[in-house]
Amino acid sequence: MFTHRKRIVGDTRTSHTSIVARTMATMSNPGPVFTPTSTDAWIERDANVVWHGFTQMQTFAENRPLIVADSDGHYLIDSDGRRYFDAVSSLWVTTLGHRVPELDDAIIQQLGRGAHSTMLGNGNQIVVELSEALAKVVPVDTAHFLYASDGASAVEQALKMAFQYWVNCGIGGHTKFLAFRGAYHGDTIGALSVGDDGFGADIFNALRFPVLRAPAFNDPNCFDTAIAMIEQHAQELAAVIIEPSVQAASGMQLCDLDGLRRFGAACKQHNVLLICDEIATGFGRTGDLFASTTCGLQPDLLCLGKGLTAGYLAMSVTAASDEIFRAFLGPDLGDKTFYHGHSFGGNALAAAVALRHLELIDAWDVLANVRERSAEMEQLLHDRLDAKPAVKEIRLRGVMGGVELAPPQPGLRWGRKVAAAALDHGVFLRPIGDTVILMPPCTITSQQVHDVVHALAASIDAACDPAAIGPATIEPATIEPATIEPAP
Fold this sequence. Notes:
This protein has helices at 17-27, 39-49, 89-92, 101-111, 125-135, 151-168, 189-194, 222-233, 257-269, 291-294, 322-326, 348-363, 366-385, 414-423, 446-463, and strands at residues 68-72, 75-78, 83-86, 144-148, 176-180, 212-214, 237-242, 246-247, 253-254, 274-277, 301-304, 316-320, 391-397, 400-405, 427-428, 430-432, 435-438.
């Protein structure tokens, strides 16, 4: 069902023929081309000029970073030609795999029409078409879409929309936000404020605005407390914000779905705006197209990103309900205008691939595959890992998983060491602390599920010996370069 088929490229506009032809020639190369430079040399070059996010650059080279030279389906290929299954979807963005011919073609076709035009006061046909398609599937009433480039920006837009909504309605006092412990909503100041401490957020406390904070998902009273807070503070709240179903950056913490339903109902009952941050959970990751729909949530504002373009290009969007949207209507250049927008918001290339992505999710029955593979993965994880003393807990919803390790003392960096060991088994993982994250593409096959779980189990055995407590060194790779076959 998910085999990458031969690329068929349609006609493009004459004025761009030479550009598109060159692009096609580059992309249709059946095999990767590698320079003789080794991975170690590339790491050195990288460290000399690149500053990586969420990375201590002093120890960057010690953690066996993957330097990608090419990709093929569900696999990344490093500078030495080794292949690795992308078990974290390149930080949770790739939904169908790399170099998907249908998605490549969508970009090439749009490139023949133009890569970008401003959306500030003007439009683009492909963005209109994408918005019409999204409006049919998002759990937002008569949605209107404001585009940005990353998840944090989509959240920032939603916070500002919620705040200004009350101002535009002439209702004072709604100046606070309610968020959850363990939440992560991005790194811009507003998103950082509604997110919990951790990931260095507390360094910027002087810049963050205060929020009302409900308990984390792993607290059994999480939603009872949150509902009580809504009842108490309804006349002060601009909005509440939640990651429905899964707090991904908190190590894949899962919420009680019945509690989430009650929470959504309480927002409606008390006329409190609900922002659902589905940057990570959107586009099939949990087995439904959007996690909000699993519990019947109908957010006033919905934030989407990551998988929106299947991991191809940077794009995010904030979907606003018709009620929110109409509160911003008024005279030209008037106070009710939402004075917010980004240079590359609604990029045409990103919109084209996002639209084709939506079509493929339906055509390939991707959601059914997620549900089937999730059940298979859950059973395998428990069969292979439950008996291991090094494993504390396994959490999985859809294809969003976290295996929390149980190091006997702090500072052993078991998460890092397991991810490094997994490279020796041809699997690319990225941990969050001592929780090893699993978020493979939604088109993962049954055999690949088995391969990933086998690699994870072997890597835990290799890296997490409770009796061998010592310096948390990470050994270099010992595997031989893999044979690279051209994509079918």
